[in-house]
């Protein structure tokens, strides 16, 4: 009886491989060799192919957050602060994280599964035989697509969340839209939009690099491909929250003196 082969690799090893892949991606990007047709293909996957769940989740999240905050603020007579609380929490934090999490579940898992299937069926080895670098052909177009589309999807999620917040505030607490939007405008600074786009860009890099790295390091068969896709999503979520924590400390933390 043949012993069962263990294809599972340590998580820390695959994380280290993802860091190395990140460096390779930017090195290849500086070299300027890109497959534009592949970029357009993945732009569709990361953009129009993911817009429905992003808008749906953002709209309901905006309504839920408004209902929970408005209930307490209205009780204390702080109706004018409802939109401000929404701006500080949802616009700065929830919209980028929710968007990146959805993209990780839909796009990152697809990247890991596609590249993982190519790895176990030796299609990536065939690329080497054709003198085609897998980084240029498979990874770089996906990273560029996510870097462009995740910030855009974050802005769309932000708009949809505000629409949901306005609807919930007006329907359940009789707060007129003008009051809500004026409060949002007073609390949300123009620099916050830049920060939101920056977060979307960084989260897009994480989703694409982790998904591609977990695909490239897949070994075994169909079962391992599915496991790689699942682990890529979980790792992306963990990385997104850790990165958001440090970004929030650097960008929003005020000195105590």
Automatic annotation (TrEMBL):
It is found in: Membrane. The chain crosses the membrane at residues 12-30, 50-67, 143-173, 193-217, 229-252. It comes from the Bacteria. The keyword Cell wall biogenesis/degradation does not apply. It is a multi-pass membrane protein. InterPro entries: ABC_MlaE_roteobac, Permease_MalE. Its main location: membrane. The keyword Cell cycle does not apply. GO terms for molecular function: phospholipid transporter activity. Keywords: Membrane, Transmembrane, Transmembrane helix, Transport. One of its GO terms (cellular component) is ATP-binding cassette (ABC) transporter complex. Belongs to the MlaE permease family. This is MlaE family lipid ABC transporter permease subunit.
